[in-house]
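FAQ: What does the model actually see?

It sees only this:
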Amino acid sequence: MINASRRNYEHLSHFENFLEILGFKAYRIMRISSDELSKGSLLLIAGKSFEKYTTDERNIIIRHIQAGHRLLAFVDGDSVPFFDSLHEILQHAGIYVCPTKVRSNEDNHYIVTRNINKSHAITMGVNEISLRNAIKFILSQSKTSPIDILVRSENNHNPPNAVLACATKLGNGKIVAVSSWEILKEDFLGESDNALFIASAVYWLLDMRPPPYLLERINTIVKS
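And it is asked to produce this:
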């Protein structure tokens, strides 16, 4: 299930096709309710840009994750944490959204990083990630649900070693948070190892083993 701001949906068609070619059923939900969330096991929030969830909607999402649902959350660095409420969901898992943009030495908002945790199932085999308008996460570690850092900025970025993507559990559910929803856009999904990273996150969240031909299929999709 995919939920996003109205303005973001127009950029997601290529990504939805990508998921369906991989064998997943992707469909958009326009409202958050227990009935809607019960139709699937993974909620993908693709940038809730300048739109807020109501208190009831936030509580529904949190309750479903704690009960065993999965959340793949991509934040919008231009709107969080002040103009949307995705940060209020992530902070329940100890993930705090900081509005600080991560920039390259050229002081632009496009970064490429190879500072990646190669020991996690999501990022094993991922060598490079490209992001635009990424922000940093601040983590509050918990002994019961440790947060695994997946991707950091590099030493030559500003700020250096900032957390850009992480994974954790909340109750019986799982969460992966990524610091820019623009990685899902057609022009970025094919950059670096972005497509492999996103696909691996979906498989991990769903407790599925990636097929042996995953990399070949991804390369065919992003280059077509």
